[in-house]
Amino acid sequence: MAAFTRLTYHQRVHNNLLSSLTGPAAARPRTFATTRIRMSLQESAPSLAVVGVTGAVGQEFLSVLSDRDFPYCSIKMLASKRSAGKHITFQGRDYVVEELTPDAFQGVDIALFSAGGSISKEFGPIAVGKGSIVVDNSSAFRMDENVPLVIPEVNPEAMSGIKVGKGKGALIANPNCSTIICLMAATPLHQHAKVVRMVVSTYQAASGAGAAAMEELVLQTREVLEGKPPTCNIFNQQYAFNLFSHNAPVLSNGYNEEEMKLVNETRKIWNNNDVKVTATCIRVPVMRAHAESVNLQFEKPLDEERAKDILKNAPGVVVIDDRAANRFPTPLEVSNKDDVAVGRIRRDVSQDGDTGLDIFVCGDQIRKGAALNAVQIAEMLL
Ligand SMILES: NC(=O)c1ccc[n+]([C@@H]2O[C@H](COP(=O)([O-])OP(=O)(O)OC[C@H]3O[C@@H](n4cnc5c(N)ncnc54)[C@H](OP(=O)(O)O)[C@@H]3O)[C@@H](O)[C@H]2O)c1
């Protein structure tokens, strides 16, 4: 019997790896300063469905719903036929995983989808037709002009008017994880000085490629340390003690799909087709949480100190920027945390005056980059 416990699958793999390399990992609080509340079963609350509940993001959905005391009157656990019949314990109750079928959305108010693009394309419209509001984690509908693409701290207005209880289904898309993490930090600065050009370089973790990629990184790390040839099933090259260009398909313009998501989604979220964005996305042998170097060019001047103040006051952002101690954000520090951490905040010496800044951003892409962002969207539906 599979049981949902405090640690998600990703956390357990992460902690196992840490244990094998550095000794037991301690449980970490979710935010840099926060409290946790629970038990949210309420008769008058919306009915929920989690599609892809057995997956990495699906398990994190349960964790976030619980952490944020999200109110619900019922919750359906949906996955593929393979998982139908498995048991999941959530907030002290036993649930049986059901196979995803068109009938599954009968009476469902909010459906949180994380089962891949093809499942979203097939079942998203079916759920909407049954009156459900779908919050989708895949890329299936992100660039559809009729579908809001939302980061609650950045563009909540994009989904205004969409609420449960109106008897009307709708689709809302969750942006790509790298886009969310980048824009959590870049947007407060953009609102102040208007970004005209943004250059992003990512350092993306194994967890972004799913549970199997994390397992392969653990396995390869052991194999390489033991002098054995690494097993390469998920990626076609050695991942442990290496890094390589993101595994997303490379397009005819030479960019890969992950890079073009950063370009196109930023423009849609900022509602600004003029902003120039370029990106280089790299997979690094980090277990969980993405890091991004972001270079910004502004229309108006913005100095380092003002930028630091703006970021310190930005919701969902924490500043870690200690030059004297050479201490800045790391993926490990933000793993399993809600907030995105920003540091290395410095004037870009290649640009005139105060019109350019470099920043370094780290965020847990499975939490703020996926499950947390989607649950925050769901909260705005209430
Ligand atoms: N991992 C991340 O950091 C991340 C971040 C942002 C967005 N996303 C997106 O979230 C989605 C899920 O990613 P993940 O990493 O959680 O993947 P995953 O660990 O591979 O989980 C996939 C989930 O989809 C379910 N599924 C597969 N085929 C299905 C079918 N035919 N019918 C119903 N359910 C089916 C699986 O159920 P079974 O267990 O029964 O196979 C499982 O619950 C993807 O679209 C991904 O792009 C992921």
UniProtKB/TrEMBL annotation:
<dbReference type="InterPro" id="IPR036291">
    <property type="entry name" value="NAD(P)-bd_dom_sf"/>
</dbReference>
<keyword id="KW-0028">Amino-acid biosynthesis</keyword>
<dbReference type="InterPro" id="IPR012280">
    <property type="entry name" value="Semialdhyde_DH_dimer_dom"/>
</dbReference>
<feature type="active site" description="Proton acceptor">
    <location>
        <position position="290"/>
    </location>
</feature>
<dbReference type="GO" id="GO:0019877">
    <property type="term" value="P:diaminopimelate biosynthetic process"/>
</dbReference>
<dbReference type="Pfam" id="PF01118">
    <property type="entry name" value="Semialdhyde_dh"/>
</dbReference>
<keyword id="KW-0791">Threonine biosynthesis</keyword>
<dbReference type="Pfam" id="PF02774">
    <property type="entry name" value="Semialdhyde_dhC"/>
</dbReference>
<dbReference type="GO" id="GO:0051287">
    <property type="term" value="F:NAD binding"/>
</dbReference>
<feature type="domain" description="Semialdehyde dehydrogenase NAD-binding">
    <location>
        <begin position="47"/>
        <end position="162"/>
    </location>
</feature>
<comment type="pathway">
    <text>Amino-acid biosynthesis; L-methionine biosynthesis via de novo pathway; L-homoserine from L-aspartate: step 2/3.</text>
</comment>
<dbReference type="GO" id="GO:0009086">
    <property type="term" value="P:methionine biosynthetic process"/>
</dbReference>
<dbReference type="GO" id="GO:0050661">
    <property type="term" value="F:NADP binding"/>
</dbReference>
<keyword id="KW-0486">Methionine biosynthesis</keyword>
<dbReference type="InterPro" id="IPR000534">
    <property type="entry name" value="Semialdehyde_DH_NAD-bd"/>
</dbReference>
<keyword id="KW-0560">Oxidoreductase</keyword>
<dbReference type="GO" id="GO:0009089">
    <property type="term" value="P:lysine biosynthetic process via diaminopimelate"/>
</dbReference>
<dbReference type="GO" id="GO:0004073">
    <property type="term" value="F:aspartate-semialdehyde dehydrogenase activity"/>
</dbReference>
<dbReference type="InterPro" id="IPR005986">
    <property type="entry name" value="Asp_semialdehyde_DH_beta"/>
</dbReference>
<keyword id="KW-0457">Lysine biosynthesis</keyword>
<comment type="similarity">
    <text>Belongs to the aspartate-semialdehyde dehydrogenase family.</text>
</comment>
<comment type="pathway">
    <text>Amino-acid biosynthesis; L-threonine biosynthesis; L-threonine from L-aspartate: step 2/5.</text>
</comment>
<dbReference type="GO" id="GO:0009088">
    <property type="term" value="P:threonine biosynthetic process"/>
</dbReference>
<comment type="subunit">
    <text>Homodimer.</text>
</comment>
<feature type="active site" description="Acyl-thioester intermediate">
    <location>
        <position position="177"/>
    </location>
</feature>
<dbReference type="GO" id="GO:0009097">
    <property type="term" value="P:isoleucine biosynthetic process"/>
</dbReference>
<protein>
    <recommendedName>
        <fullName>aspartate-semialdehyde dehydrogenase</fullName>
        <ecNumber>1.2.1.11</ecNumber>
    </recommendedName>
</protein>
<keyword id="KW-0220">Diaminopimelate biosynthesis</keyword>
<keyword id="KW-0521">NADP</keyword>
<dbReference type="InterPro" id="IPR012080">
    <property type="entry name" value="Asp_semialdehyde_DH"/>
</dbReference>
<dbReference type="GO" id="GO:0046983">
    <property type="term" value="F:protein dimerization activity"/>
</dbReference>
